[in-house]
Here is the input.
Amino acid sequence: MIEGLIRVRMSQADAHYGGNLVDGARVLSLFGDVATEILIRHDGDEGLFVSYDSVEFLAPVYAGDYIEATGRMKKIGNTSRKITFQAYKVIETERDPARPFAAHLLKQPLLVARASGTCVVPKGR
Here is the structure.
């Protein structure tokens, strides 16, 4: 099946809550970008996201963390596309005020969110 991937660093602008915590909606935005890539690869069209069937936030994400979001098309309908998503923290920023620029590569990526949803593309693509 078709897969997509995006890796981004969460910026200070992504920090929505105290302690530089990133809003979960930012991770969903990454899932939307991954879905767009998958639909373009498969259908030659960006399509539209219709709904999420499930969304789970499993670990916090902070400004400075690197997040890798992946998606995989699981089911192809007439115009619908069922896609599953996962987001992993691969680099974690230090939250020690004495070391504001320190970060480290995680030995094992940390699953921070997962979801599944449905997208649609125009008929006849």
